[in-house]
Amino acid sequence: MRVIRAELRAFRNYASVTFEPDAGITVLCGRNAQGKTNLLEAVVLCSVGQSHRTNHDRELIHWDAPRASVSLETERRDGTHDVKIILNRGGGMRVKQVLIGASPALRIGELMGHVPSVLFSPEDLSLVKEGPGERRRFMDMALSQLRPQYFYSLQQYSRALKQRNGLLRALSVSSATASEAASQLEPWDEILSQTGALIIRHRVWFLDRLVRDARDAHAHLSGSNETLAARFICPFDKEDDVVRALLEALRNERARDLTSRGTNTGPHRDDFELTLNGKPARVYGSQGQQRTAALALKLAAFATIRDELDDSPVLLLDDVMSELDAERRCRLLSWTPGVQMIITCTDESDLAGAAVGKMYMVDNGTIV
Ligand SMILES: Nc1ncnc2c1ncn2[C@@H]1O[C@H](COP(=O)(O)OP(=O)(O)OP(=O)(O)O)[C@@H](O)[C@H]1O
Ligand SMILES: [Mg+2]
């Protein structure tokens, strides 16, 4: 897949812009706060239906406008495709409308897989350094693009989890007996175990695949013999019948959940541990090692999506060149030839020697 054209209207700091990236490497160069990341964000929005920077869609609309839109034209093996997202500030309209071709999508999930993308930005260091939330989000972003069913289960799971936690809070201050509490919690536990099991099974599969690609990408980037590995941390990953195991765990934990007023077990607690030569990268990795590990994970997600969809995603690299030494920069750009990449930088010299197809200067919401 490749992006042929992106049209932004009243999106972030762009009033109106048309952007036509190269089939190979496109560079967006400009000073800070000019709109480079905003352009990548527009592509991400059309790819997964939401920004990578905010959960509040209205923030994406230009301050002075009632509505924003991003249209993307892509080319795939079977021809050209159009995706359009309209964001409305208010006035009784739905905030987000999605059009695939000329037809309105009824659910955001229908968008998944139309514009496959993988973004890497400096904040992705948090994949290695920070808590498990970032790593779950990483798995969710990749898996949702691969399997719409995963995305729908995730939505159902988080809705049910919210309901169950609300119920736990209400029950903890009520005079309900243990058996009354159990019968009220039971329907939610059933939904959580059904949808949660599907999430866990997909994550097991994904990490298993990812590890192989991450090891290769890491070896390529670092040119070293260090071995990057990832180990899924989930109490149910070895179970044959995950639905039953999860349901039993939810039932067994009810008393504790009522005391802590929250759900203590399930895929919303999953994590994976990254190791370099068997040592936790989060604890022992140097800054450079952690950054390379995070980048290797993203490249592995790229390879997994490409192989599964049998179609290459667009690779979006936000401000990563300045963070890598010259050798790693070179290795990154040579990682998979022929891939469409959109790269932002503040200094042209960061891309010296790269086979750049197109270079845009980004200046205060305009591109030249
Ligand atoms: N909703 C909005 N309406 C108008 N302008 C906005 C909106 N949201 C953000 N901006 C502006 O967009 C600019 C930031 O754009 P962006 O994050 O793309 O910068 P950048 O070029 O990537 O900079 P850096 O090199 O610092 O990462 C800021 O000037 C910000 O004020
Ligand atoms: Mg930026």
Describe the structure.
The chain is α/β, with parallel strands linked by helices and 368 residues long. It folds into two domains: 1-116 and 311-368, P-loop containing nucleotide triphosphate hydrolases (Rossmann fold, 3-Layer(aba) Sandwich); 125-310, RecF/RecN/SMC, N-terminal domain (Glutathione S-transferase Yfyf (Class Pi), Chain A, domain 2, Up-down Bundle), CATH 1.20.1050. 42% of the residues lie in helices and 23% in strands. The protein is built from ten helices and 15 strands. The strands form three sheets. It has a six-stranded antiparallel β-sheet with strand order 2-1-4-5-6-7, covered by helices on one side. It is globular and about 70 Å long. The two termini are 25 Å apart. The model has no long low-confidence stretch (mean pLDDT 94).
Question: What's this model, at a glance?
Answer:
With about 375 residues, this protein is of the alpha/beta class. It has helices at about 35-50, 125-130, 130-145, 150-170, 180-220, 240-250, 255-260, 280-285, 285-310, 325-335; strands spanning about 1-10, 15-20, 25-30, 65-75, 80-90, 95-100, 105, 115-120, 230-235, 270-275, 280, 315-320, 340-345, 355-365, 365.
Strands of the widest sheet, in order across it, are: 2-1-4-5-6-7
Query: Which structural class should the secondary elements be placed in?
Result: alpha/beta
Distance between the termini: 25 Å
Succession of helices and strands: EEEHEEEEEHHHHEHHEEHHEHEEE
CATH class of the largest domain: Mainly Alpha
User: In percent terms, what proportion of residues is strand?
Assistant: 15-25%
> Which fold name is given in CATH as the topology of the largest domain?
Glutathione S-transferase Yfyf (Class Pi), Chain A, domain 2
The main pleated sheet reads as:
6 strands, antiparallel
Ligand catalogue: adenosine-5'-triphosphate, magnesium ion
Number of domains: 2
CATH superfamily of the largest domain: RecF/RecN/SMC, N-terminal domain
Determine the fraction of residues in helical runs and give it as a percent range.
40-55%
Give the CATH architecture of the largest domain.
Up-down Bundle
Mean pLDDT value: 94
- Which term fits the overall shape? globular
Number of helices: 10
